[in-house]
Amino acid sequence: MAHRGKGTAASARKKLGPKLELSAAHKEQMREAFDLLDADGTGTIDVRDLKVSIRALGFDPTKEELRRVVAEVDKEGAGKIGFDAFYSVMAQKMSEIDSKEDILKAFKLFVDKDSGRIAFKNLKQIAAEIGEKLTDEELQEMINEADLNGDGEVTEQEFLKVMKRHDY
User: What is the pTM assigned to this prediction?
Assistant: First the structure.
C-alpha cells in the first residue's frame, strides 16, 4: 500500500506508544476540531495546525519535541496529515493531561490578565495571533460550552469543571 504522505495512525502509534482511545464523545469533538482546521475540506490539515492544537491543550513543547512529533506523523515531509494521525497524536497528548496543574496551564494561555477570565475577545485575539480562521460564531460556541453560569466569560473553576467532565 502506497503511503500518501498524510500520516497514518499506525505510523504515529508506532513512535508515540500504544493506541489510546478517547470516549466516543471526545472522538467526535476531535473530529469537529479537525474539520474546523481542515478549512478547504481536503481531509488533511497543515502540520502547523497540529502544533497549535498541542499548545492549545496546555503543552509547551520545545521546537525539537514538535519537530519529532511532526516527523513521526509526516514521514514524507508533505506538511499535511489526515485525521487518523491527528487523532493518534492528540489522544496521546490528552492522556498526558492528568492534573489540575496541567489544566490550569492551558487556562493561563487564554486568560485575560486583568479579569482573570477567558472572554470572547481573548479567544479572538489568540486565534488571530496563531492564524486560525475561526468565525465569531465558532469562537462564541467555545465560550458558551465552558461558560457554566452564563455570564459570557469562563472562570478558572468553569474551565476546570469543563476539562474534568470530559472523560479522556
Answer: 0.50
